[in-house]
Structure formats: C-alpha cells, structure tokens
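Researcher: For the record, we're logging two predictions in this thread. I'll number them. Prediction 1 follows.
Model: Prediction 1, sequence and structure:
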Amino acid sequence: MTVLAIDQGTSATKALVVTDEGAVLAEAESPVTAGPTPDGGIEQDPGQLLSSVLDAGRRAVAAAGARIDAIGFANQGETVLAWDRATGTPLGPAISWQDRRATSVCAELDARAGALNALSGLPLDPYFAAPKMAWLRRRIGRRGVVTTTDSWLLHQIAGAYVTDVTTASRTMLLDLDHRVWSGEACDAFGLDLDALPQIVGCDEIIGETAAFGATTVISGLCVDQQAALVGQRCLDVADAKCTYGTGAFLLANTGTDAVRSTGGLASSVAWAVAGSFAYCLDGQVYTAGEALAWLRRWGLLSGAEDLDRIAGSVPDAGTVNVVPALCGLGAPWWRPDALALIDGIGLGTEPAHVVRATIEGIAAQVALLVRAVEGDLGRALRVLKVDGGLTRSALLVQTQADLLQVPVEVAPSAHATAFGVAALASVGAGRAAGLHDAVRVATPVAIHEPRISRAHADQRLARFGDAVTRLIGPDRATPGTHPS
C-alpha cells in the first residue's frame, strides 16, 4: 500500500509518498508564509495554504510514479479562519496559532479559566483556537463559519465538513473526557455549537479526492504534533517526543487517562484509532527555529548550517541569558504578553555567546516542560525522542540531553509528522490493524547521553528560571497561573 502523507505546517507544506514498509518513494515541499499585521497579529493567506497543499501533493505523486491508495492529512492545529460554507470562499486571512490578539477575549473569561481548563484540559490562552475564533467572530459578525484550517482545506479538497478529534482537542471547545463538542465551552466563547464541523476519528474515511491525480480516499487525519507522536512510535504511557521546528513541541503519552496537569501543561487527545483512544500532555516553546531566524535577521547567524560552528566557538554562553519569547511564553507560564529577553551582556560578550545562549534558552524551556510532565505522571522519562529540522544541530541536542539528564534519541527522518499521519491513513484504509502494526520501528541516527552532572543541570535551569522571573516579574513567574 502507498500513502500520500501531507503535513501542512506554518512555514511549508510537506508531502511524502510512503510505502507500508516505511520507504519514502518521493517527497516535495511548498513554502508558505506567516506575516505580522499592524495591530500585532500574525496571519496567513488561506489561498496560499491550499495552493501549497495541492502543489506539494501533486509534485510528490508525480515524482513517486506509483499508485496512491490513501491520503493522510496533518494540520497546524490552532490556526483558524472564517469562510462561507456555501461557496468555500475565505472571509479573510487565517489567524495563525502564533497570533496573540485574542488576549482580550481570555482576559474577559478569566473568572471561568479554571472551569474551562477542567472541561477542555487546556489553559485559557490565546494560543488555542477558541479564543481566536471568538475574536474573529467579533470582527466579522455572524457571516459564515469559523473553524480551524483543516476543516476548510478538507472541504476544498474533498467536500467534507469535518475535523478530527485531536484537532478539536486543541480548540478549548471539546469536552476532553467524552471527546464531543461542549455546549458550555461554546457558550463561554459565544460560539455556535451547531455550526462546528463533525468530529471524526483519526482513521476514518472522510471522502475521496481527485486533487492529486486518480480518485483516492482520505483515511487519516491528525493535528501535526500528535501525528509526530505517532510517527515517533510513542505508543505507550510515558513515551515522549519533542519536535523542533518553527517552535518546539513536547508531547508525552498518558494512555487512556486524560490527565489534568498541576504543572501548567495542556492535556489533549493523542489519537482515536480503531475504536481505541489515548491522551497526551503537551507543552510548547513558541519560538525555536523562529528564534534562529531572528538571529539571522540581526546578522548574528548567517544560516542554520552555521549554528553549531558559531555557537561551538565559545565553551559556554558566558554571562548571557536568552529567553526566546518572541511570541510570548507558553507552558508552563502562559504569558502571551511576554517579550524576549537578552541580558548579561558585557564588554567580553561575543555574538557567539548570544547564539549559544539562545540554544540553551530553547533547551531549558523544553527541560522544564519535561519536569512538569514527570511531576504529572509521577515517573521520570527514560528517554526523549526528538525530530524536526533543528535536530540537525548536534549542539542543541547535546544541550537538551545535558539539561534533561536523560538520553535524547534523534529520529532518522525530520518527517515524523508525515510518517505518523501515513500510519493513521494505513489503519483507516484497512491495511493495518492498529498503530503498533502500522508504525515502523526506526533506529535513531544518534543518541546523546548527558555529559554534565544533575547538580550542574539544576544550576543552569535555575539560572534560566531567574531570567524568566526578571522578564515577567516574581508575582507572575509561578507556572500554570494567569495574570488577572
């Protein structure tokens, strides 16, 4: 069986043609952009998103030269748009998951934050879809529908009006325990429950499309990070992965328990497949690759390929601290108003110190997320599996292992999301009985063991925590709390 796996991301849409044995017959990538707005938002062009899906998918299929038996589709998760269901026409730009303009909506609902968190598993934050949907609804009135981008793209490609359960669990509108839309949450955000798309499993056939050539079923759907969790074969409780791309996204499998975090993490559906389901805890570093892009714009880094050479030219970050909060701080602080911090610069500071401190800032945030996961699960992680473009940096991965104090395994491919959604599509098309059958075991290309002591790691994490406190203030630095 051959699957076209499409990963529609923030900066590009990637398409892979994958066989049952896990061989990649062809791949293609089509770039997309996310641009800032005068009022501080971050938006994307829906037409560009659709064109990128069609372009990447068609080129991958053409290059593979093989019959495609099924299609899997992964999406950004929290990016939303308004559109006309009758015509399919967008009513404006897509509001990116990075957009923070819905902070005002969250502030109005602060008194209900605890109840919404208990219901949906998600902290009240403009990162998630529902606040952005409510903000957008106020801008456009009652016209059209407001959904996550997957629903619009699937409608354009296959005529369906659906979203999968993992994407629905990223909205704040899902009753997490029962995996259905919540009338209570919809009322809180002023959204119409009846206008929301149908929730489907991750392995359901939702229709057919001839958009990529011969008519083919779409049988696998998932939000991108959960798809990567599947692709990394994190199928058992306490298995965890982190994907380093535009941001860095940590997910840990919690099995059939929808754990409510006490450490400021989000709880979501990991997958619903073959009549079974699993949940996960997750946390986010909003700017990882985006932080390195910022360094390039400022001339501190010429390109990603120079990251290790430049950062490795100094033995450590010296006195420099970087909190790369260019789009606010996510878990465990949930401070959408936070801005990036660079401090500790002296006469002896070189650009390389700032680059290295940025790497350490990304790794420190992930390490603190892992500690929160371990607190919620009541057990330590044995290993962290990592994927994504930034894992080409051996220095970043080694820094991660040092601060985590556990081995870090680097996936042999940067395309864990595509492999995960291909496995889901394989189950949906009846080729595999379940995920353990569909997901291939992949040997890591590198395993990084910690090279520093736990005491040294604790010291470095405490120093980063102090920098966060200087950034957002001592009264607001407690993880999991929200400003009034």
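Researcher: Logged. Prediction 2.
Model: Prediction 2, sequence and structure:
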Amino acid sequence: MKPRGVTIVVHTDGDVDSKQFHLPLWAFTAGKWGALVVGLLMVLFFAFAGPIMRAAARMPGLQRELSRLREENGRVQQLAAALNRAEGNYQALRKLLGGPASRDTPTIAGSPEIMRAVPVRAAPVGARSFETAPSIPSHWPLDRQGFVTRGRVGEGTGADGEAHEGIDIAVPLGTPIRASGGGTVEAAGADADFGMFVLLRHPGGYESMYGHASRVLVREGDSVVAGQVIGLTGSSGRSTAPHLHFEIRREGQSLDPLTFVKEGN
C-alpha cells in the first residue's frame, strides 16, 4: 500500500504547466507544527523584548543618576570628616592653651512627663569638652538653638497613643547631629515611623537614638566618639517639619533625655 502523503500544486500565472510537490504526510504535519511553534516564539520574543529594550535604554540615565548620588554622598562624607577634624583641632588647641569649658545648665520648666514647648539654647560646639572613649550619653546632640516641641510622655508604646519615648527638638533642615556619647553604631537606616535614624550602643547598657534625619553619615558597626557628626537633621518618616527625635534608653527602658543631657555639655 502506497504511504499517504500531501501533494502541493504550484501554478504560475501565464504558464501552461503546473508543478507538483509530493510530501509525506508526517513531513507536512511536522512542518505545520514547526511553523506554529516558530510563530509562537516570535510573538513571545517581541512581547518580552519590548520591555527589556526599554529598560536597557534607561540604563545609561540611571547609571548617571547613581554616579551623581554617589558623588554627592562622597562630598557630604568629606564635609563631615572635615568638620570632625576641625573640631578635634579646636579641642586640642583649647587644651593646649588651658581654656575652660562652659558648663551652663539650662532651666527646664515643668514635669518631664508632660508635653513641652520651651526654648533650648544649644551652646557653640567649641565650648564643649568631649570624651575620646566610649561613654554614656550626656551631651546635647545639636550645635545650634532649638526648641523642644515635645517631651517624653509615659512608658512604652501606650494603648492611648500618647506615649512618646524621647524628645523632639525643632531645628533647621541639615543641622549636624552629634553623638551624645561614645559607643558603637547598633543600627543605621530607614524606619517607617522615625525615617532615617541612627541607634548607638554605649557602656552600661545605655543606648541613644536619633530619628527623622535627612542623611545618615555612619554605618552599622562603626565606632563613634562623643560629639562626632553622625547625620544631618531632616523631616523623614512620620514628621511634619524638620526636627530631631532624640531618645536615651537603658536595658531597653526609656529614660528622659532632659535628665541626662545639659546645655553646653
């Protein structure tokens, strides 16, 4: 019995004769499915190639933006390092000349457990004397005048939503944030509530936290000394205006920073 096949007749306009092509049935079936697979692959290629090509076209612009951000961050790091070096040189010069350090104590009205809106005059950094070894948080974390717009209220998180475990100090955007004591960077990054933040670990189970920064200039694991610039103030996270959220804790227990830090110290 002759195998089944497919005959294809080709007739050219104007010619008398026609051409016939005989293909085995299996070859015709394979060709039909092969053409279908090729067509499907072409459709998938163009469906996925479009987004890939568009993403590839954006790559040079993204790389330029990344390079710009790295360069800008490098300049900020250099400025912070220069500020720390200048401060160290000033402190060394004051010690060499035997200049006294100012230790004025601010007057804070009201109970530490209620809301506050009292002015706080931050003394110039040159009048301070910072420790060079790990130390408990005892220094005002800012250089310039600020206002304590909210004080520490209650313990823990509080079901009534009124608890506030630190103080909020209103200062202009970009004010240097200084370590209140020497220690190690326990964590540094971004948080939904506190925005850009730095958490320092100090001796004796103490911790200090600095929130709502616009820039963080230290990394987790870094060692910092008291007075070192660790970031710049901002309004990141759940914030409506530039300020610093400052906390002091011991063994996980929130403490009132205003009982630890002193103006000009």
